[in-house]
Write a structure and sequence with these properties.
- This protein is α+β, with helices and mostly antiparallel strands.
- The chain has one domain.
- A 5-stranded mixed β-sheet has the order 1-5-4-3-2.
- The chain is extended.
- The termini are far apart.
């Protein structure tokens, strides 16, 4: 019984992904209806990042206990 509850929590955690846009006005998207499977995870002292097979990057939000999908934005400034 305990094993089933642990598996269910793991599946819920996989489905708890939000989209975050990396620009001046951060907006959270909706929770992903399908579980996201990560192929690589990178951890630092204060951050946790993951990569899925499509090349999307996620950051774990410890307060929300959710993976946030990062959406890249291009800077149009030229290098100095």
């Amino acid at each position: 019984m305990r094993r089933h509850a642990t598996r269910r929590r793991h599946q819920e955690a996989l489905m708890n992904t939000n989209e975050h846009r990396d620009d001046d006005s951060p907006r959270l998207g909706t929770v992903s209806p399908a579980p996201t499977k990560f192929i690589q995870i990178c951890a630092s002292q204060n951050d946790l990042f993951a990569l899925d097979k499509e090349g999307n990057i996620y950051q774990y939000n410890f307060n929300a206990k959710a993976w946030i999908k990062l959406v890249a934005s291009r800077s149009y400034e030229e290098p100095a």
